[in-house]
Amino acid sequence: MPEHMLTNKVATITGGGSGIGEATAKALAQEGASVVVTDINGDAASAVADAIKSAGGNALGMRVDVTLESDAAAMVAAAQREFGSLDCAVNCAGVSDAPVSFTDMNLAAWNRMLAVALTGVFLCLKHELAAISRPGGSIVNVSSGAGFTPAPGQPHYTAAKHGVLGLTKCAARDYVGEGIRVNAICPGMTDTPMLREHFEQAPDLLEKVAHNAPSGRLALPEEMADIAVWLCSDRSSYVSGESIIVDLAGLCR
Known about the structure:
seven-stranded parallel sheet, globular, alpha/beta
């Protein structure tokens, strides 16, 4: 049997209650990590943690609102208290809105998106970087194809995801000397509950998007999780400051 990539490692994940976050939490555990699974929906986080434990892994589920610095700090403290350290982290929490034009977007929607998708990443990074193992710590931020190219009708989402790539590069540059790596993944169109909610008013459009993709399908959350787990592991030991597009046909560019 091949050695697990994350044996004896401790990981945290935000947005771990569904979609890419859920798949990543389970993949981290399958590769040997003890995982603190967090989500704004505490029941969902606990359900994922319970599934991991039922499969023989170690996990703790907890409610975390990434827009609150106290919650970001509590997540890191929980990893250290329950499992003894923090070795890797995946910042995956996000929100989705229906497309809207610049002139129709209200400030509340703008502020909510940036609070979760950008400021939330900053707050988690701040506390993860302070506590993560040195050397050998690894952090993965989940951006989007919209970190490279604009998402139609999503100026706030596009701006936030571009910002995540900037945060990733700054943190990678500042902490490489301490043996901490920071990278980002930029998922293409992935079949998640959030994406389906995004298209709930136009289900035919979702199928059209999948059909028109050169691959003929949407990505699976597990395909994103595999890249995040690799970046958390020592097998990517010379990779930092990168923004990896996870898209079969390079559509994010």
